[in-house]
From TrEMBL, chain A:
Compartments where located: Cytoplasm, Cytoskeleton, Cilium axoneme
Domain F-box: 9-40
Organism name: Coccomyxa viridis
GO cellular component, one term: axoneme
Protein name: F-box domain-containing protein
Gene3D superfamilies, alphabetized: Ribonuclease Inhibitor
Lineage, top ranks: Eukaryota, Viridiplantae, Chlorophyta, core chlorophytes, Trebouxiophyceae
InterPro entries linked: F-box-like_dom_sf (IPR036047), F-box_dom (IPR001810), LRR_dom_sf (IPR032675)
Pfam families attached to this UniProt entry: F-box (PF00646)
From TrEMBL, chain B:
Keyword Cell cycle listed: no
SUPFAM superfamilies linked to this entry: POZ domain (SSF54695), Skp1 dimerisation domain-like (SSF81382)
Keyword Signal: no
Family stated for the protein in its record: Belongs to the SKP1 family.
Transmembrane segments: none
Domain SKP1 component POZ: start-end pairs: 3-67
Protein name as it appears in the record: SKP1-like protein
Pathway: Protein modification; protein ubiquitination
Role this protein plays: Involved in ubiquitination and subsequent proteasomal degradation of target proteins. Together with CUL1, RBX1 and a F-box protein, it forms a SCF E3 ubiquitin ligase complex. The functional specificity of this complex depends on the type of F-box protein. In the SCF complex, it serves as an adapter that links the F-box protein to CUL1.
A biological process term (GO) from this entry: protein ubiquitination
Residue ranges the record marks as coiled coil: none
Keywords annotated in UniProt: Ubl conjugation pathway
Amino acid sequence: MNGSTGRPGHALQQLPDEAVQLILERLNFRDLKALSLSCKGFAAWSKMATRIQASFHIPDTERGSIRELARFLEGAHCVTRLGIEMEAEDGVPYLEMQQSIQELACAVRHCAPSLRILRLRLFQTTSFRDYETDAFHPDGLHSLLVSICKCTHLRMLYINTGLISGLCTDTGDAVSMLCAKLPHLLVLQWRMAMYGPERPNHFSTAFVLNVASNPTLQGLQLLQVDNFTFQDHVALPASLRYVAIYNEAFELLRPIGALLKVCRNLEELYLTGYQCCDTQRPDMSTVWPTAQTLRILVLDVLQDIKTLAFPACAKDEQTLPNLQILAVRHLCTVGHLLNVRCPDLHTMVLFLASLEHTKFLELFLRQGHGKLASLQVLFYTRSRRKEQYSQFWSALRPAQSLQKLQLVISATQAEPVKEVGQLLDAAYDLGLQSLKHLSEIAIYIDSIFTESPPVHFLTGGDLRAKDAPGSAQQVVSALGKLVTAGVLPALRKVCLYPCWDVAAGCSRDGQLPSPAAVPYLECMALHSPGDRTGGEWGNGLRSMVGSDDAKAAMRAIESLSVSYDVEELM
Amino acid sequence: MRNIVLRANDGADHVISVAAASLCKTVASLLQDLEASKGEDTDPLIVPLPNVCNCTLQKVLGFCEQQRAFDELCTASPAAQQADLTRQIQAWQMEYMQVSTDELYHLVMAAHYLNVPRLLDLCTDAMAERIRGKSPAQVRECFGLKPSLSPEEEEEIRRSNLWALN
């Protein structure tokens, strides 16, 4: 190439600062270290790094590597972003762990004046316990928190302490302290996932960074915390717009109204993973004053619903005037919801533990949610009686504006696939006339257990001719009856997932090229397992549902909970 | 439509489409200025680029034309084909980045001067990839550097940063 210097390394040192920054931000701490020691020019480069990313493994086989980072940061006055991952093996000696945390605290302290974004992921597989004294020692966490509190310009803090029980079992006090000490903090995420990505994950990284980098915002905007107890003395800041609390370890002991009492700007509220005693419903009524500004509400309360009496509705009708998206695990456990009007509600995700619980759905829909356009229902099924399917369709009668219905049928065996035709026939037999605007139906089959044999709709071969139960053709025929009978006159799109071509012995993808068989349809998609479909859920539900539409409702519900009690649900 | 001619520092001319030229923000800005001063003139717009050699300019223009084609494909393709398209783009970019370190340096400089953000991203990523996971000696070897740090200076860096090689 013309203009070659013949000395590329030296020429590289002439690169403009902007390009150098782009290169440096793609390198981790170890690469920067090697770069620094390669030549004078690159040593100067490494001092320009504004973003440092480092990962460490404990026990530290390269002794003192966290200490190296701390020392590097000692003279670094331009580091604005610091990301550290520390993974500890099972059986790490207490003293070594304690020392590593202290060194980490030291590293944070050194770059505190310039730091704007701090991400710490500390994974450990054992509790932080001193076995000699049989006592937990939260000293390490304390020193780390003290260091973080020195980062007075911090705009975003993400910390994952894993499940280090000795480090912290209740983040309530720590969150209060951080909110008080960090006046510029816009985003605070305190997670406790032990391995891999945290769940539930409502907010994408891009969204969080967007909030954190908005110069016009003041006060804490986004709070996402795991295992946050509702201490009486803690009230969250009034500036909050996004709150997500996931409690694996604690029951919903106190009304959350006190916690949110001054939060009058809330747009999104995710309360997920809560345990609740079997005989008493959580008192959600105290949330309504705060909920007036809500756009998204997710309520996930784990409860043995078999022992609950029919929910008592609130005496007075409540209104959530701005609510657009609602996801709820058991409508019956949150009785107050049954008497709430949501005039702007357009999307609802619901888990029906049993088709018998459709009465709760009907009660809710009767309140009048005139803009409800999209409904996702997840239900578990084994063999059902046809009248139960009729109840389901009957419950949908008040939802006259419904345009899109997504049914996620979670199954352990193939029978439910064969029953999809019966489910649709039930609507025909019922003579349902109210769903005039329903233009799209998607039916997804999912396995309850990952080890379950996969369940599919079948396509291809002789199945089409035979209209066999469980075949895509049977479902299409049933839908055709509904359209021609005027039950679903607007239906134009159908999606079945997953599909398996029995003739070809492979998964089936894309459109069904048979317009003669389904003249009323404009679009029919038979998606194969693992397909990524649609992006309709990008309209506010963010990563809780995401673009993988086929799993949308499943993930919406599953991500909200710790585990299933399948016996309870069946 | 008016022709756009980009002239390299050795006088070589390259005709480019307006859509592709618009990916170079420096060129787009120059075009706006020229359009404003010359009005509705139909003569080719000649944009002199004194900081870019012919060979590098060819390579940059190849990127712009291909990206424009990919952009059109992305707009026209249904959602189901987007994943395939993304794979195609990645494969093309990987092939495109099969250049020497010297060529890569000139591409970075040109992408920066011409203000082509996507090319700058791609090039700096490729540059980082050549550094990633290497020891100081391997970094020197990759970039054709001789050790420039005296033992005293190296010790000073180690001491000031207190980095110790393991």
